[in-house]
Amino acid sequence: MTDKDCIFCKIAGGNIPSLTVYEDEQFRVILDLSPATKGHALILPKQHYANIFEIDEHVLKDLIVLAKKVATAMKETLNCDGVNIVQNNGEVAGQTVFHFHMHIIPRYKDDGQVIGWNPQESDPEVQAQLAAKIGQALK
User: Fold this and answer.
1) What residues does each domain of the chain span?
2) 39 vs 32: CA distance, rounded Å
3) Distance from the CA of 24 to the CA of which of 42, 68, 96, 117 falls in 20 to 30 A?
4) Any idea which residues carry the catalytic annotation?
């Protein structure tokens, strides 16, 4: 199912032109129009899922296998020094298009990009409480 108002549904469905580097029944991989680095690509599921909380697990499994293939192709063809695989969920986390997608960003020495976070001090007691709470939710 697609969302008729979703720009990524339209791109994934082939209704809006894109620089497609790969396509199969489930996904379209395109070059990002506002790339972080040379070769920055997006993996778009053809079915609409707003975020990681909605996507089917079998689709997610296939997507991470495809992410590895795309990253490997980038390493071989672009001679990048590394690759970031990024997926944001929610506006506060940097998601700007609410159609699940994964960024595959080739990294080059001195490319000027900063992708990451500012590490903070942690309290061992608070960390232990958090680990217990999250672990309990996983059972």
Assistant:
1) 7-137
2) 8
3) 96
4) 101
In this structure, are residues 35 and 113 in contact, taking their beta carbons and an 8 Å threshold?
A: no
Check: CB of residue 87 under 8 Å from CB of residue 101.
yes
Could you tell me how far CA 2 lies from the centroid of its own chain?
19
Say what the pTM is: 0.93
**b/e sequence 77-91, b meaning 16+ C-beta within 10 Å:** eeebeebbeebbeee
Superfamily, domain 7-137: HIT-like (3.30.428.10)
Structure tokens at 66: 């495809």
For the stretch 41-89, pLDDT in tens is 999 999 999 999 999 999 999 999 999 999 999 999 999 999 999 999 9
Residues near 96 by Cβ (< 8 Å), separated by ≥ 6?
88
**How many other C-beta atoms can be found within 10 angstroms of the C-beta atom of residue 30?**
21
Q: How far is CA 121 from each of CA 89, 92, 132, rounded to the nearest angstrom?
A: 24, 21, 19
